[in-house]
Amino acid sequence: MVGWTRSTPWRQGSILDNELLAAFTHNFARKVDIAVVVSHDCDIAANPDIEPTVEVIPATFVPYENGSLTNAKDPRRLHLTVTKPSTGKQCFAEFNAREKFQIPKEKFAGQLPSSECSLGAKELEILRRWLAARYRRHAFSDAFEMRFKKVEGKFREILKASSSHLRAILFDLDEDSGAVSVGADAPSILDIYLIYTDQSGSGESLKVAQSTKEKVEKAFQNKYKRNGEWNEIELRSCEVMSDHALTYAQYLQLSEWRSEGLSLRSDPIGPMTEENS
Predict the structure, then answer these.
(1) pTM over 0.70, yes/no
(2) Is residue 35 helix, strand or coil?
(3) 166-196, pLDDT tens digit by residue?
(4) CA-to-CA distance for 240 and 206, rounded, in angstroms?
(5) Helix or strand or coil: residue 211?
(6) Minimal CA–CA distance to 46: which of 4, 83, 79?
(7) Which residue blocks in the chain are alpha helix, DSSP H?
(8) Which end of the chain has fewer beta carbons closer than 10 Å to its terminal beta carbon, N or C?
């Protein structure tokens, strides 16, 4: 048996060849076309006594790219572009976050990654951040989630229409407002920050963000305000702010609300913030 060494050709983003793929995916419920190594490079290089397995995630080729599943918008499924170097042809692959599995490291010894398919640097970065986001999403209280359902559909609809101009949606939820338990009478106090992309020619993004603010305020008023009084959720403020104006201290105090219409859209991809679904 070939021993494991730190000079292994396997890296995060390597794709299994067909033989190795078939050996570990023959019992999968769905067809698997490729599998990508997602273990960190340092863990791959480590001695098997320390890190005995390599984690991989399978994917299935799909005929077209679903925009709602690209750029890490959905925490559970992801569509990525995979390139076939020999022809330059690009295919679309669908990943499911729940399907990761581990392979004993010795099975990789003496084997080479596939030369038939590869992930570009940008695709690998999106894959990394998509996997990390699943564990970094903020969880709001059950009481707030139940109340928010009344406006959530409209809220997502509004944000989806302006997603290319918004970098993030940040919530400041006052958990001391008396509405932290299900059935409490006091409304949840909420401040929303619409963070728009402050790049060259960002005047359009600012305009869209301001229009989005008006729509969000109207949606909350329609759902939660009666006879001048807020019920269940009080939208105390909805502010528009550029991503350059937001300070790190402010960011640490806020929670990002994850919308299916927001994603890692900047090119090159910018820093990732905490995410929710």
Answers:
(1) no
(2) strand
(3) 877 889 988 655 455 545 678 999 999 998 8
(4) 8
(5) helix
(6) 4
(7) 18-25, 41-45, 121-136, 142-161, 203-224, 248-253
(8) N
Q: Both tokens of residue 161? A: 């229409």
DSSP 272: P
Q: What whole-number distance in Å separates Cα of residue 195 and Cα of residue 213?
A: 11
**Residue whose pair of structure tokens reads 């929670």 in the numeric block:** 255
Locate 267 and state its tokens.
Answer: 């090119």
Written as six digits, the tokens of 151 are 């406006």
Tokens 């994917």 -> residue:
59
Query: Residues near 10 by Cβ (< 8 Å), separated by ≥ 6?
Result: 37, 44, 54, 108, 113
pLDDT tens-digit map of 88-147: 899 999 999 999 999 999 888 888 999 999 999 989 998 998 898 777 666 677 888 889
Take residue 76 and report the two structure tokens written for it: 């559970």
SS3 assignment, position 188: strand
Interatomic CA distance for residues 159 and 138, integer angstroms = 19
Q: How many residues does the chain have?
A: 277
Residue 24 gets the label, from left (phi > 0), alpha (psi -120 to 50) or beta, of alpha
